[in-house]
Design brief:
Blueprint lengths: L2 H21 L2 E3 L4 E3 L2 H32 L5 H21 L4 H27 L10 H24 L20
Antiparallel strand pairs: 1-2
Helix pairs in contact: 1-2, 2-3, 2-5, 3-4, 4-5
Length: 180
């Protein structure tokens, strides 16, 4: 697959992560944050693009949502955490080729645990919230669970799409000859 095509798909996934994060927001009054659907796209980025490009797309799209949404202080942590989520998902999917759905759910759970603990650590230390940052854990857990469920529901659709163009180890499909 050409680097151009991979970059285009990465840009598409980044924009989808940004939009999914910004469009549907369920406010969490206790923390001032919100629950969103961006995690589903973050997880799918790791599957579709692999660890490197998926991580960059997920991190950039999610951080852009923070920047545009007024959560500038969270953007660096969001970039790192969402990128790592996609990297973890992409690596687990590639390492274990059997039982696709089961390993995707496993990868999602590991990734969401990273997100929950990462945001807690960031808020508690860097932002100086201390243990008060624990108030965001339930909202982040709900967001993570929703992301896993939605991404799992989208996986059968994605598996039907011909993604061989994205994989180095598989040849691109041949175009049929339309001489009619």
């Amino acid at each position: 697959m050409s680097k151009t095509l991979k970059l285009v798909i990465a840009a598409l996934m980044a924009s989808m992560a940004c939009v999914a994060t910004m469009v549907i927001k369920i406010p969490i009054p206790a923390t001032g944050g919100y629950i969103n659907l961006g995690d589903s796209i973050v997880l799918l980025s790791g599957v579709v693009l692999g660890p490197l490009y998926g991580g960059l797309a997920a991190g950039l799209g999610s951080a852009l949502a923070d920047l545009l949404g007024g959560y500038v202080a969270f953007a660096p942590a969001t970039f790192i955490l969402k990128a790592l989520m996609a990297v973890i998902t992409g690596l687990i999917i590639r390492v274990y080729p059997q039982k696709q759905m089961l390993k995707f759910v496993f990868a999602g759970i590991i990734s969401e645990i990273l997100m929950i603990s990462g945001y807690f650590a960031f808020e508690a230390t860097i932002l100086g919230y201390g243990l008060v940052a624990a108030g965001a854990i339930p909202g982040n857990a709900i967001q993570g669970a929703a992301g896993i469920v939605i991404a799992t529901m989208l996986m059968p659709i994605i598996s039907k799409v011909n993604l061989s163009l994205l994989r180095k180890d598989e040849p691109a499909p041949k175009r049929r000859n339309d001489k009619q």
